[in-house]
Amino acid sequence: MNDSSDSIFDYESSGLIGQGSFGKVYRAHHKRTGKLVAVKALPMNRTDRDRHAVLKEITILEQLKRSNYVAKYLAHYEYNNIIFIVMEYCSGGSCEIVSHLHGGLSESCIAIICRDVLRGIVELHSQGIVHRDIKGANIVLTAQGQAKLTDFGVASRATVNCDVAGTPFWMPPEMLKGRELDTLTTTLGIPHGSEVDIWSLGITVLELAHARAPLMNHALRNAMVMIPEIDPPHVSPEAGFSIEFKAFVAACLKVDPKKRATASELLQMKFIKQVSGKRDLRKLV
Fold first, then answer.
1. For the whole model, what pTM was predicted?
2. Where in the sequence numbering do the catalytic residues fall?
3. Which domains does the chain have, with CATH numbers?
4. Annotated binding site for ATP
5. Residue list, annotated binding site
6. Binding positions for ATP (predicted)?
7. Theoretical Cys-Cys bridge with 69: which of 8, 120, 138, 284, CB 3.0 to 4.6 Å?
């Protein structure tokens, strides 16, 4: 169901801004109003399961339309076996790109981003939604330095899941333990819940600090074996990060999911509480 009588032909693309295994994202503008938007194009030439996943993503986005911490869903259309999802355009780009451009971000910028993301996670989890793919590429920035979650393609409305979802380097140990490596869709009998988003956020913090996620110097298959077997990533003592930064990362990256801090608890940590304004982040976008 769309919010207006527009069709996808009322939008004109001005370039590709991202792509993944499921589709591409374009910057576009509405021909009549000139409004800039992001359009996610998802080909439906695979399976009924893929179609169900896209429709589930749209349902979740509709549920989150009032959130200030999620890139807003505007409409969707289907044409020529492609589903187009029209979203709010965030001109600051993804945190992954911003981090790469600057060779890593400062603690203050990371804290500003985390504060917004955590507020979004609190909203998600309060509504029974688990994102399951939090990473720098799925956090976008507005021109005002507001961070917003995007890409709910593998999100779930179940409080407990047993399937593997997300991007391996950001996956928590409980999702990968016992997993066979020949497929990214192996179903496990190991349940996991909203705690997966907290682990992924902790990995994202390290990603933004170093402009790459931990273990990315290893082959994907090797990293997937290592994550459930080795100690959680930690901040090197010689890296020069504050005690507050290290404590925040440690609170996210507990091997036992039940020992991880909740999003609400993380918002009360000094690393987040000491941040004021968005000036440092606005300078980067």
1. 0.91
2. 133
3. 9-88 (3.30.200.20), 93-282 (1.10.510.10)
4. 40
5. 40
6. 40
7. 120
